[in-house]
């Protein structure tokens, strides 16, 4: 009988990344890291051999990317989640403790990332081999791939947050409210000019 136990909590969400090297299936720990879960046509802009592959920056520079909240959010650490193997998905911090949209895949155990980065998912099934193919590239001295791979699209397969509207829907709702408010202000201004409803 094995004395090895699975200490990680169960996953409760799933995302499929369609990349230029094949699909990468990711299960999410959205309960343990709820804020860490717009990636279409973004590059894997950083590759560090036997360490990580990093992506999720819409600028492709490694210096951009907003969180879904429009501002950085802090670390989300969980005692049962450890950087103890390849295929884990973590948030890449632009500044210590400040998460945006960038993420990375581990290519090996990376204990040096403990207490510095949020783990929010794991690559599952045979898609792990596609993830590993991302690291099979030449890089320059700044760890940038000479021929970077890219995410073609990101699809939510199992949404752990059905009550939250996607980013585009939230932006559209905000635009609609602003437009309605502008129309109301314009109507009030015109009514004031005509004297209608005022003494």
Automatic annotation (TrEMBL):
Entry GO MF terms: peptidyl-prolyl cis-trans isomerase activity
Record-stated family: Belongs to the cyclophilin-type PPIase family.
Lineage: Eukaryota, Metazoa, Spiralia, Lophotrochozoa, Platyhelminthes
UniProt KW keywords: Isomerase, Nucleus, Rotamase
Subunit structure: Part of the activated spliceosome B/catalytic step 1 spliceosome, one of the forms of the spliceosome which has a well-formed active site but still cannot catalyze the branching reaction and is composed at least of 52 proteins, the U2, U5 and U6 snRNAs and the pre-mRNA. Recruited during early steps of activated spliceosome B maturation, it is probably one of the first proteins released from this complex as he matures to the spliceosome C complex. Component of the minor spliceosome, which splices U12-type introns.
PANTHER family linked: PEPTIDYL-PROLYL CIS-TRANS ISOMERASE-RELATED, SPLICEOSOME-ASSOCIATED PROTEIN CWC27 HOMOLOG
Bias (Basic and acidic residues): 175-191
Name of this protein: Peptidyl-prolyl cis-trans isomerase
Top class in the EC scheme: isomerase
Membrane-spanning residues: none
Primary location class: nucleus
Catalytic activity: [protein]-peptidylproline (omega=180) = [protein]-peptidylproline (omega=0)
Xref: PROSITE patterns: CSA_PPIASE_1 (PS00170), CSA_PPIASE_2 (PS50072)
Annotated ranges, domain PPIase cyclophilin-type: 1-156
Region (Disordered): 175-199
One BP term from GO: protein folding
Source organism of this protein record: Macrostomum lignano
Purpose: PPIases accelerate the folding of proteins. It catalyzes the cis-trans isomerization of proline imidic peptide bonds in oligopeptides.
């Amino acid at each position: 009988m094995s004395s090895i136990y699975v200490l990680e909590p169960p996953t409760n969400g799933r995302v499929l990344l369609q990349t230029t090297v094949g699909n990468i299936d990711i299960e999410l720990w959205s309960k343990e890291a709820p804020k860490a879960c717009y990636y279409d046509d973004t590059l894997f802009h950083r590759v560090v051999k036997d360490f990580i592959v990093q992506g999720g920056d819409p600028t492709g520079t490694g210096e951009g990317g907003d969180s879904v909240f429009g501002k950085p959010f802090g670390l989300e650490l969980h005692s049962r989640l450890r950087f103890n193997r390849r295929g884990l998905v973590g948030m890449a911090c632009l500044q210590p403790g400040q998460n945006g949209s960038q993420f990375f895949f581990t290519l090996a155990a990376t204990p040096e990332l403990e207490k510095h980065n949020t783990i929010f998912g794991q690559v599952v099934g045979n898609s792990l081999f596609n993830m590993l193919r991302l690291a099979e590239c030449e890089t320059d001295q700044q760890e940038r791939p000479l021929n970077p791979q890219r995410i073609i699209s990101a699809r939510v397969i199992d949404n752990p947050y059905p009550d939250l509207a996607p980013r585009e829907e939230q932006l559209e709702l905000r635009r609609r409210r602003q437009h309605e408010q502008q129309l109301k202000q314009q109507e009030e201004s015109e009514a004031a000019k005509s004297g209608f409803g005022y003494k």
